[in-house]
TrEMBL record:
Protein location: Cell membrane
GO cellular component: external side of plasma membrane; extracellular space
Entry keywords, A to Z: Cell membrane, Disulfide bond, Glycoprotein, GPI-anchor, Lipoprotein, Membrane, Signal
Protein name: Retinoic acid early transcript 1E
Residues covered by the Retinoic acid early-inducible protein domain: 30-197
GO biological process, one term: positive regulation of T cell mediated cytotoxicity
Topology in membrane: Lipid-anchor; GPI-anchor
Presence of the UniProt keyword Membrane in the record: yes
Record lineage: Eukaryota, Metazoa, Chordata, Craniata, Vertebrata
Cleaved signal peptide residues: 1-32
Family from the record: Belongs to the MHC class I family.
Cited function: Binds and activates the KLRK1/NKG2D receptor, mediating natural killer cell cytotoxicity.
Record-level Gene Ontology MF annotations: natural killer cell lectin-like receptor binding
């Protein structure tokens, strides 16, 4: 029987990438910043079509939604960040990214019809150690199904759900989109992480530093 290479399966590739991210995360001195977006193709009146949560080292400290178009601080770190000039830049960027992701969602043809809106859940992740970016990636889930992973460090795509293969090919051909993802995760995200580290390290242990 022919043995399958560990790298021949998209699922295996995804697991290997996750293991690499986990290994990086547990390194001494490694810190991470994560933006979780939930985008809906449509929403009822009074309900946001875009919601975002921002985590530093897995601690939630900021929330955003398209209805209010405002960043809501959570905890001591959130209050410290909210008091800086970066708040305005973050609010603008979260709004712009939300709109761009919604345009991507509207271009996706759902495999099955649903009574509710189509959804796109996106995780933008960056990691920093020894004063440099050591990880940057995007993970996409379509209608609750993990579908694609984009490694912004080496500009490669991994298909998690085979139904997303056509979407991957479409996005991969758009070099501008890939550069946009790379700029946000390896550029902006890393810059914010570097800035927020000063506030994080100044916080007392009981606030959630782990």
């Amino acid at each position: 029987m022919r043995r399958m290479s560990l790298t021949s399966s998209p699922v295996c590739l995804f697991l290997l990438l996750l293991l690499q991210l986990i290994a990086l995360e547990i390194m001494v001195g490694a810190h991470s910043l994560c933006f979780n977006f939930t985008i809906k193709s449509w929403s009822r009146p009074g309900q946001p079509w875009c919601e975002a949560q921002v985590f530093m080292n897995k601690i939630l400290f900021l929330q955003y939604d398209s209805d209010n178009n405002m960043v809501k601080p959570l905890g001591l770190l959130g209050k410290k960040v909210n008091a800086t000039s970066t708040r305005g830049e973050l609010t603008q960027t979260l709004g712009e990214v939300g709109r761009d992701l919604r345009m991507l969602l509207l271009d996706i043809k759902p495999q099955t019809k649903t009574s509710g809106p189509s959804t796109l859940q996106v995780e933008m992740f960056c990691q920093r150690e020894a004063e440099q970016c050591t990880g940057a990636s995007w993970q996409f889930a379509i209608n609750g199904e993990k579908s694609l992973l984009f490694d912004a460090m080496n500009m490669t795509w991994t298909v998690i759900n085979h139904e997303a293969s056509k979407i991957k090919e479409t996005w991969k051909k758009d070099r501008g989109l890939e550069k946009y993802f790379r700029k946000l995760s390896k550029g902006d995200c890393d810059q914010w992480l570097s800035e927020f580290l000063g506030h994080w390290e100044a916080m007392p242990e009981p606030t959630g530093r782990r």
